[in-house]
C-alpha cells in the first residue's frame, strides 16, 4: 500500500509537469499550445513503449540465463518470491563501470540489468541489497514514471525554445506579453526541479524498501559506498544514449562536483547512507 501511494504521488508530479507546460504555452499562443500537446503526448508515448529497449541497447546489454549467472538468478528469484512480484528478465552489460538499473512499463514486463563491473566488485550481501533496491523501483513503477518524467522535461524545454522562436511571441497582444514570456522562461526551470525532486525522492524510497526486503541495512550502505568509489575509478563510456540511461542507475555514475551537484538526479551517497543508517 505504501509503494502504491508513492507511485500515485509520483504520477501526480509527472502530470503537474505536463500541465505546467501546456498551461504556459496556452498563454503565449494557441499554436504553441497545440504543438506542446503533441510533443508531450509523443514523448510520453515513446518513453512508455521504447524507453526500456533504448536503455538496454545503450549499455550493450544481453539477456542471461540461470546456467550462466546462477547467483544473480537465485537472488532475484528469492527477493521476488518474498515480495510476491513477478521475476523480471535479467540482463548483463559488458560495461566495466559498476552499476545496475531497472526498466519496464510494469512488474510483468520489467528487466533488471547489472554490469560486469558491478558483479566484480560486490559480494553476495551487497549484490542482494542492490537487486532489492532495483526490484523496489519495479514494484513502485518508478521504471515507467522516471522515463516518462524525463521525456516530459525534455518536451517542456523544447516547447519553451519553440515559444521564444515563434514570430510575434514578444508582442504585447492578448494571450502574450511580458507575463507569458516570463512564464515561458520559468516553466523549464520548474519542470527540471520537479524532475530532479521526483528522482531523488524515489531513490530514498527504494533504499528504504531494499532494507525492509533484506533486513540488512549494512549491506546496502557498503554497496552504495563501493559504487560511489567505482563511479570515479571506472566512469561510464561516453555517448548520448548512455548518459540518458544514467538517470535510471542505482547511484549517479556521472557524479558532479561543486555548484553543478544540485543538478544531479540522485541524492548524494552520504545523504542516502545517513538515511539508511537511521532506519
From TrEMBL:
Binds 1 zinc ion per subunit. The keyword Cell division does not apply. GO terms for cellular component: plasma membrane. InterPro entries: HtpX_protease (IPR050083), Peptidase_M48 (IPR001915). Pfam families: Peptidase_M48 (PF01435). It is a multi-pass membrane protein. Its main location: membrane. Residues 68-277 form the Peptidase M48 domain. One of its GO terms (biological process) is proteolysis. One of its GO terms (molecular function) is metal ion binding. Keywords: Cell membrane, Hydrolase, Membrane, Metal-binding, Metalloprotease, Protease, Transmembrane, Transmembrane helix, Zinc. The chain crosses the membrane at residues 7-24, 30-49, 144-166, 178-198. It comes from the Bacteria. The keyword Membrane applies. Its cofactor is Zn(2+). It is found in: Cell membrane. Belongs to the peptidase M48 family. This is Protease HtpX.
Amino acid at each position: 500500500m505504501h509503494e502504491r501511494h508513492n507511485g500515485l504521488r509520483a504520477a501526480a508530479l509527472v502530470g503537474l509537469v505536463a500541465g505546467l507546460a501546456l498551461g504556459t504555452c496556452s498563454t503565449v499562443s494557441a499554436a504553441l499550445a497545440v504543438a506542446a500537446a503533441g510533443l508531450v503526448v509523443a514523448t510520453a508515448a515513446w518513453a512508455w513503449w521504447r524507453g526500456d529497449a533504448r536503455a538496454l541497447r545503450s549499455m550493450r546489454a544481453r539477456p542471461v540465463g540461470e546456467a550462466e549467472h546462477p547467483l544473480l538468478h537465485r537472488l532475484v528469484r528469492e527477493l521476488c518470491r518474498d515480495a510476491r512480484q513477478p521475476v523480471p528478465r535479467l540482463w548483463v552489460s559488458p560495461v566495466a563501470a559498476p552499476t545496475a538499473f531497472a526498466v519496464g512499463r510494469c512488474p510483468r514486463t520489467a528487466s533488471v540489468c547489472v554490469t560486469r563491473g558491478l558483479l566484480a566488485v560486490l559480494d553476495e550481501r551487497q549484490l542482494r541489497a542492490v537487486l532489492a533496491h532495483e526490484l523496489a523501483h519495479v514494484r513502485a513503477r518508478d521504471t515507467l514514471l522516471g522515463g516518462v518524467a524525463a521525456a516530459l522535461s525534455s518536451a517542456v524545454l523544447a516547447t519553451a525554445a519553440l515559444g521564444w522562436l515563434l514570430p510575434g511571441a514578444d508582442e504585447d497582444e492578448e494571450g502574450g506579453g511580458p507575463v507569458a514570456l516570463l512564464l515561458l522562461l520559468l516553466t523549464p526551470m520548474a519542470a527540471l526541479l520537479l524532475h530532479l525532486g521526483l528522482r531523488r525522492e524515489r531513490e530514498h524510497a527504494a533504499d528504504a524498501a531494499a532494507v525492509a526486503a533484506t533486513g540488512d541495512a549494512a549491506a546496502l550502505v557498503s554497496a552504495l559506498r563501493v559504487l560511489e568509489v567505482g563511479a570515479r575509478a571506472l566512469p561510464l563510456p561516453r555517448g548520448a544514449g548512455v548518459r540518458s540511461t544514467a538517470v535510471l542507475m542505482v547511484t549517479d555514475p556521472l557524479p558532479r562536483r561543486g555548484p553543478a551537484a544540485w543538478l544531479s538526479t540522485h541524492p548524494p551517497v552520504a545523504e542516502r547512507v545517513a538515511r539508511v543508517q537511521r532506519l
